[in-house]
Amino acid sequence: MKEKSYHHGDLRRALIETGIEFIKQEGEEALSLRRIAEMCGVSNAAPYAHFKTKDEFIVAMQHYVMDLFSAALEKTSIEYKDSPSLLLMLGKTYVIFFYQNPFYYDFLFSRKNISIKLSLENAVTDENTPLAILQKTAASIFRKVKLPEKVIQNKIIAMWALVHGLAAIVTMPNIEYDDNWETRIEEIIKSITIPYQT
Amino acid sequence: MKEKSYHHGDLRRALIETGIEFIKQEGEEALSLRRIAEMCGVSNAAPYAHFKTKDEFIVAMQHYVMDLFSAALEKTSIEYKDSPSLLLMLGKTYVIFFYQNPFYYDFLFSRKNISIKLSLENAVTDENTPLAILQKTAASIFRKVKLPEKVIQNKIIAMWALVHGLAAIVTMPNIEYDDNWETRIEEIIKSITIPYQT
DNA sequence: TTATAAATCTTTACATTGATAAGATTAAAT
DNA sequence: ATTTAATCTTATCAATGTAAAGATTTATAA
């Protein structure tokens, strides 16, 4: 731990962590590379030794946050292993993760940001992407009911869409709702048996 | 139609329409107020006679696009009035709207942008917001089944989350899927009767 | 060890952008 | 017709991403 050396020592990590903390509180829109550099005590051009461009920096942070997200899902996956409410709890975890850090939603999923490959059909279940985890669980549950593969695939996507949409909704800044989303989310997911027509 | 007068004549409208066309093709991230001004044949400061700030310009465009969205839903609402598949078709329209113009999704819903008030509980059904339209329809359908009000509210939110999430998914740039989303969407929405547990 | 190379950081500089101020031109109002 | 308000232009500024050139430290190789 040097006091004030020319070299920072661990700038790359410092930039990422400072940047993520900033995004967590103020959102990506407000993030300026120069300010993050300043917060880390280095000059404005220093980050360019570690990231070719600001976008590359963003991508690095995304992977960091995406790992947090995956970890949350995996934790639930283990905790509720073999429980009949596993899928429900996974969905709840999905939503709560963003509910607790609203800025992460846009940061991970806004159109220009998505650097994570997602696959719908025949998910690569050996990967630990959030989608893969959800897919794997949903698939194993749905397959217990004998149904055409296509229907199962559709159900998986529907389940994903439901929780993803809920995440989008609960992170909207101008949404009005009475309190306790956290308990409500579970009820909403359960209510999914909607009597749509034809 | 003057050829080249000092005054533009209808600059405000021109800016909005040019801006929206730009967003439709390149997304909001790429939009610069100066470039839009240039495209309209005026100087860089001209827009400030019509919008105090860039954000105000953005909000104006959002309302424009949101109106397009509402109109699409209302059209479906009329077309399938009294049809048993009304809700399904509304949901499909919701998703297709963004599927056809992916950049609109982020533009309307990205966190910093949402200037439209949304209400979950006891929706203001006399307004023509997309949510209100969906809510009104869903409510009238769900209420035919005798259920506690809270359950109905949950189902409404679930329905909204499902289509909103689908919209988010189909507009993701890195998502892989085989063709014909348009026909698929309907099947996915229908498959919503998911056998979740507990 | 020492000379050379590579990595990391600073300073300077530039182009783009949102925004403001001062003034020119036109349209509206009295 | 004179005044007033709206609209537009031409500077100008500060913040930002980024490139270039050089300084300082670390790593490598002789």
Map the helices and strands.
The structure is a homodimer of 198-residue chains.
Chain A lengths: L10 H16 L6 H7 L14 H26 L6 H15 L1 H8 L8 E2 L10 H13 L6 H22 L4 E2 L4 H10 L8
Helix pairs in contact in A: 1-2, 1-3, 1-5, 3-4, 3-6, 4-5, 4-6, 4-7, 4-8, 6-7
The structure holds a DNA duplex (30 and 30 nucleotides).
Report on the architecture of this protein:
Two copies of one chain form a homodimer. The first copy, chain A, has 198 residues and is mainly alpha-helical. Chain A has two domains: 9-51, Arc Repressor Mutant, subunit A (Orthogonal Bundle), CATH 1.10.10.60; 68-190. Helix content of chain A is 59%, strand content 2%. Chain A is built from eight helices and two strands; from the N terminus they run αααααβααβα. Chain A has helices at 11-26, 33-39, 54-79, 86-100, 102-109, 130-142, 149-170, 181-190; strands at residues 118-119, 175-176. In chain A, α4 (86-100) runs parallel beside α7 and α4 packs antiparallel against α8. The mean pLDDT of chain A is 86. The structure holds a DNA duplex (30 and 30 nucleotides).
